[in-house]
Design a protein that fits this description.
79 residues; 2 helices; 4 strands
Length: 79
């Protein structure tokens, strides 16, 4: 996790059991972006409805070798 500023947190999934297993089996990465959009946004909204969830990268985006997915959570305080 990286704190970009006082209202923004970036979460990077460096290791993912699902993607690592698929990689070992020679399978393509699971395209989990649609699932992540629902799951992470729902989770953040439960904590605080003012948290905006944004995907930085997630399969089916290409794997950059550093992390499988990355998400930005920003607490919008100007509402």
């Amino acid at each position: 996790m990286i704190r970009e500023d006082k209202n923004t947190l970036v979460f990077k999934m460096v290791e993912c059991r699902v993607q690592e297993a698929r990689k070992r089996k020679g399978l393509p990465l699971f395209p989990c972006k649609p699932v992540g959009l629902v799951e992470y946004a729902g989770f953040a909204n439960t904590i605080d409805p003012n948290i905006k969830t944004e995907v930085i990268a997630c399969p089916p985006d290409s794997y950059n070798g550093q992390y499988y997915c990355a998400w930005r959570f920003t607490l919008e305080t100007d509402k």
